[in-house]
Amino acid sequence: MGSAPLPSDPQRPSGRALPRLAACLALVGSVAVVGGAVTAPAIPGWYAGLVKPAWTPPNGVFPVAWTLLYILMALTLWRLWNAPPTPARRTAIGLFLLQLALNAMWSPVFFGLHAPVAGFAVILALLVALILALRAAFAVDRPAGALLLPYLFWVCYASSLNGAIVALN
Fold it and tell me: Up-side HSE of residue 122: CA atoms within 13 Å toward CB?
């Protein structure tokens, strides 16, 4: 009795794995760079003048947290991209890119336009898209989904901060 061949590991190193990883890091990194470029100038003036809730962390926490989260996001996209091509993978990547686009919008809206209410609408849409992306990622590659969990927790926390800023200002 013969056995079926084992499926290849979609995450094993191949000639395409490292260029794909670099592309994922570049894409997600570009969102981080744009967000930081829009955010940094608003921190000492406009943002410092807002009334913020007591649970707001020191400003130095944000770049550290976001750097780690963006790395995890890039790894998620890389794992999804390296999974076998299926409709589920296409859906997971599409939802990932949707949440990434909403993520890219938030800083220009909140910090760039000085618009906490519009920022709150964007972050709530981001939260919904992220939940859908996380669910789709788990269906394709459990580690990819797990890599998004810290990001989900942070976006929930960031949403509460944004909502509190709206309420207090």
Answer: 20
Residues sharing a CB contact under 8 Å with residue 65, sequence separation 6 or more, in sequence order: 154
Rounded to an integer, what is the distance from CA 12 to the centroid of its chain?
24
pTM, to two decimals? 0.90
What's the Rg (C-alpha) of the chain?
18
Q: Concatenated DSSP letters for 12-27?
A: S--TTHHHHHHHHHHH
In angstroms, the first-to-last Cα distance of the chain is 72
How confident is the model over 17-21, as a mean pLDDT? Answer: 94
Supply the DSSP symbol for 119.
Answer: H
Identify the band that residue 3 occupies on the pLDDT scale cut at 50, 70 and 90. very low
- Mean pLDDT (the chain, rounded): 93
